[in-house]
Write a structure and sequence with these properties.
Keywords: Membrane, Transmembrane, Transmembrane helix. By secondary structure, the protein is an all-alpha fold. It has a domain of 49 residues. It is built from four helices and no strands. It is elongated and about 55 Å long.
Amino acid sequence: MKKANSLPNRIFWGFYDLVNTKEKRKYVLIICIPFYVVWGIANYVDYIGLSNDVVLAVLTVGISMWLAFSCFFFQTKEGKKLREKIEEQ
């Protein structure tokens, strides 16, 4: 049974490839850095006059979308081979 080639499926396997491939683990840190940026911006946004909740919500949605598409685009031939091997079992 072949799995659907849907966007959530690609995002999941892209993240799986990132975490389980030694050469790509450095990208996990690069992807996680914006979450620290969100925390810093949310703490120092008071002088703008915006609510912290609004800024945090907007930034979290934006960063989450960026994370998902980063995982989607980091898929490689090695990741596809690994996926095929797992699906065969």
